[in-house]
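Hi there,

I know you've been waiting on this one. I reran it after we fixed the sequence typo, so this is the corrected version. Both the input and the resulting structure follow.
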Amino acid sequence: MNLLHRFLLVLFLQFHVLSAQVMTYASPESVGMSTERIDNLTTVLQNYVDSDQLAGAVALVARKNKIVYFEAVGQRDKANNSPMQTDAIFRIASQTKALVSVGIMILQEQGKLLISDPVGKYISEFQNTQVAVPNENGGYTLEKSKRPITLRDLLTHTAGIGYGYGAASDLWEKAEIQGWYFAHRDEPVLETVKRMGSLPFDAQPGEKFVYGYNTDILGGVIEIASGQSLQDFLQSHVLDPLGMNDTHFYLPKNKVSRLATVYSSAEGGIVRTSDEGTMVSQGAYVEGPRKSFSGGAGYLSTAMDYARFLQMMLNGGTYDGKQILSRKSVELMIADHLDKTKINNANGTGFGLGFSVVNDLGLRGQLGSVGEFGWGGAYHSTYWVDPKEELVVVYFTQLIPANSIDDHAKLRTQVYQAIVD
């Protein structure tokens, strides 16, 4: 083989390795799925729109790095009769948590922290924490934490930190820290997080899965360990390398026309939520202080942007030739860390470092695979990655609260019934 042929072979191999890391469009049949079967998903989703259970939604399905389904149904805004488009921007709430968890792992790879570190090493207000223990009189007593809370506790939601509605909810309410919504806050998120450190938590570290402010606190750790704002750190280390150009904490004014409207389930259909800056509203993502970068629930994004992020995880930390994380870091993130603890009412499902993880398919009782990881958001969005089937699924809509609607379950059945290999 002469030098020219060797050079051309190297280029050929590099191109194909790179192509395997980037999502491209392909027919379902080329990756072992059926066009006829996957197209039935559109009919199923449209039924929710026609019955006034959803205004609109966007779904993306990719297998083996190939996008085989990417469709929008319904309307982005019913009052304006604006059709939903695949580039619509959605409030993704808790789907922010996965991005921030990756940020923590990046800092560990940079040697700037260890996930075994106590939180108090970075935020001094967490050096001596306490727990509110309910008593028989309907009140509570305060106890010192048995051990320091670690970054790993936060990543796995086993730090005992809820959303301010536990036994000591009176103190959290007085501190004006309750619920996942931060966009209205006129202070940097780190200042809010520091005030959390003096408030009583809901359980002892490591003893129970308690879903709450854990990832917001990790956002504060990122700011201290990196020396950057959470927004700037994630922009430079995750969003820009992945080409996630439509993912923002607060929406640029030139993209407002693409923002999907939030609706609520109501008797006989759905209604538009208010414009007030509360958890059940349109939120202050366009007109607001733009100061608080919530690591737990702050981002807005598109289905395509989020699919790129998930494909990077499925690829073992790499996308488009860019190494976001090492393969070993990804493996640790998608392993079950809960041991004897478990997610409430989620049989067969544990939790890793930022993701839920399926560990027993029969106990869970839904189509999927052992090793599948995912999560969702308060506005009724959901996603999952199935490494066994090399599958990425993203489903975005804006419905809060979402009452008596089974679209997530039917989405899952439609995706898996379309696999024919």
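Quick highlight: The first strand starts at residue 24 and ends at 25.

Best,
R. S.
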